Amino acid sequence: MADLQLVIGDKKFSSWSMRPWILLRESKIPFTEISLVLNTPEFFEKIKLYSNAGKVPVFVDGDLKIWDTLSIVEYIAETFPEKNLWPKEKATRAFARSIVAEMHSGFTDLRKNLSMNLAEKLHGRSFPEGAWKDIRRIESVWKECLDTYKGPFLFGKQFGIADAFYAPVVGRFLTYGIDLNPTANSYIATISSLYSYKEWMDGV
């Protein structure tokens, strides 16, 4: 297999980059990181080498370039089936894909009002009702998963794609000091203590 590459943006801001990055790191899949500083002339020039979409992340496997986060993790899961990045059981896998797709396409009020900024602590801010609705929905997703599959990760004892997709939310909640239920707080502690999460934070 050719050297795998992942093109990412600033670790402080790029939640989309964090998802495949932490999945690869936590799954011990070797890859080369190519980091670009977002919204600079250099970024807009260099990203053309990897994707006509002009966005990060981009996953490179030889001549193949994949530029959507969900497509990237699906490709990784298919390329490394022994890593069991999705749950093995069909119904559980469907549920996992549903909550990943919900994060991929939803939670617009959360994204708008709790923007990704892992370098700061922005506690004490007020948020509109829509943002709190998104926060409580994520809280309920985590609780349902952890109650059903017994943790410490969303679908049991192994870190998987669903955890990778919600890892940036962990960062957002820590940045803004969001008050959550004990189950959610326990999950935040689990994710933020991972070596891969800490390594990402070291690069912020």
Q: How is this structure best described in words?
A:
This protein has 204 residues and is an alpha+beta fold. Helix content is 52%, strand content 8%. It has nine helices and four strands. Helix 1 (15-26) packs parallel to helix 3 (69-79) and helix 7 (161-176) crosses helix 8. The chain is globular and about 45 Å long.
Descriptive keywords:
alpha+beta, single chain, 204 residues, four-stranded mixed β-sheet
SSE blueprint and pairings:
Layout: E1 4-8, H1 15-26, E2 32-35, H2 41-46, E3 58-61, E4 64-66, H3 69-79, H4 90-105, H5 108-113, H6 129-149, H7 161-176, H8 182-192, H9 195-202
Parallel strand pairs: 1-2
Antiparallel strand pairs: 1-3, 3-4
Helix pairs in contact: 1-3, 1-7, 1-9, 4-7, 7-8
